[in-house]
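Structure, all four chains, one model.
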Amino acid sequence: MVNSRPSRPPTIYDVARTAGVSKSLVSLVLRGSPSVSEARRTAVLEAVEQLGYRPSQAAATLAGATTRTIGVVIDDFRNLWFVSLLQGLQEGLAPHGFRIAVSDHTMNAHVEAGPLDGFLAMRVDGLVIATEPTPAMRVPVGLPVVVAGSRLGVVLGADVVADDDRLGGRLATEHLLELGHRRLGHLTGDGGAARLRAEGFRDAVRARGLRAPEVRGAGRTTEEDGYRAARRLLDEAPATTAVFAANDTMAMGALAAARERGLRVPEDLSVIGYDDSPIAATHLLQLTTVDGRNAEVGAAAAERLVRRVTTTADEPVRTALLTPRLMPRSSCAGPRDG
Amino acid sequence: MVNSRPSRPPTIYDVARTAGVSKSLVSLVLRGSPSVSEARRTAVLEAVEQLGYRPSQAAATLAGATTRTIGVVIDDFRNLWFVSLLQGLQEGLAPHGFRIAVSDHTMNAHVEAGPLDGFLAMRVDGLVIATEPTPAMRVPVGLPVVVAGSRLGVVLGADVVADDDRLGGRLATEHLLELGHRRLGHLTGDGGAARLRAEGFRDAVRARGLRAPEVRGAGRTTEEDGYRAARRLLDEAPATTAVFAANDTMAMGALAAARERGLRVPEDLSVIGYDDSPIAATHLLQLTTVDGRNAEVGAAAAERLVRRVTTTADEPVRTALLTPRLMPRSSCAGPRDG
DNA sequence: TACGCTTATTGGAGCGCTCCAAAAAGTGAC
DNA sequence: GTCACTTTTTGGAGCGCTCCAATAAGCGTA
């Protein structure tokens, strides 16, 4: 008979006892205090190892320690734009000993009362909101929050780090214009970022004295939306030679629509996306896109968060707008006949 | 001057005071006890609302409550196979009041000492390991653990829920054979799932008395690996008419290689993937693939976990193998000339 | 009005830590 | 050996909750 009673995990007292020291000393060792003799330190560490001791995050938090955890709210795991954001965050936070807890907003929608409740209950030290902020996202005063990636939808007292979507939209559009395209279209959606990118598109098109259609799918910015929007665009304006999609996922849908029409990319139709997500860099797509600097956005968010968490000073709220960058790949070229 | 001192969050005592009741009563209300008078209940809830009170997860956990949280270890956010797994888990867990905490294994590799330490420190009620388990994943006795998606790499005392990768590999291969292909190849990688799928491939090929090459990229199963492996395959066996890739991501690379060689899919080359990940269902790929039943795997994992967490009985370790299913789409067809 | 019984409410103990002030152990100069 | 320090180690208080036993309140009924 194996004793498999879920024997509750060992505590700091257990470690103290087997190491022959006081619980306080164990605590000091675990938190890396310099004023502990080498002998005791090793004794404690051995006891830890032997017992398989893992400090209770709960007890530590309760006892006033900070959780050293930053909550990150993502909108949807399926759209990969957040990957480099997360990476930038991670890299900016790790050196300061902060860990990240990720939560998918749409997925947890039914579980919690509010989208932030889980994180608030676990007393995260800070929050990164990488979605369109909703009014339900009420944040307690004093909790450092950074809205990353979106600059619309205000969260009171939150810093904002985002790339300049409007500029990015202009960049993408100007790239198409410079290649010689005059009949272009934009595939857009309902989100804030999409709106700004559409504005950039409009800016660039108007600056050339052109008019160009903006089409949407079902309002979201999925592959399906991109596909539908592109079909509609190609129906209504068959002479179109270039398409700017609000993000890479939509661009993927546009590529599908183009193929369906027998249009080669980029020979017959140029397609440009936005986000420089992992799928854009694949051999299959080689999608020209706009790098929204998500890694840098993440790094900047990390930096802001660390500053706010570690300093007591009352820093003013800041908005940082990073400059997007064109990522030319193989999905854009000049139009067949100028 | 606004008082923006990070005033620490209100406690249960604050709520009790403003509601004019005892802290215990507040606790009862919050945990939905039936034996609380309506008057007090509303008084408490109003106080909660007014103060913006959020119970401290840490204190609750420490005081003996369970965390109602299941930790999920994912290998890499970029490979989307886990999405439906997560969804299945979520749906199975939510009705029982469990929440999910996700962590990306490769991303957190540098942060924590062990891959599970974060979860252990937060005292999760159970664990889902959706990666190849590594020896470093030592799990405390009594903690319910389910290894999901992979059946190799044993974690002591853990249940296993996975699809039958070997059978799936056979299914995929037989599909190609039935379509009439005789010159086929397999793109594989180093992981355990890949190994099993390769075995299935071998089984099916041998059963027909054929021989067929298995190629790998750099050992992983990324798009890049798929691309490189496919190129190599097409170099070495240019007459190949069908390719079975170890997963959808690799299949995507194979599609790229095919296009580069001027091979149309499926007319000149059939490509089948594995996982039925979100990218397979896109309009652009319409990839024939094998559904690894990840949603069901997730659901089954949830069910096992809930059972183990809520019953004290000492259930024996179980391995459940779900039957994979072919998902025919448009990337496979018969060979041009039989 | 008092009695038992059920239902609603309360205070106290304790979960496993951190933090702090205080005690113990070293260390060197006299 | 003593004294004044410095370095290392310790016990106690308390974080915000849950759980439990105990009390208070309500409610019929004798």
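Residues 21-25, 28, 35-37, 40, 59, 61-64 of chain B lie near DNA strand C (CB under 10 Å from a C1').
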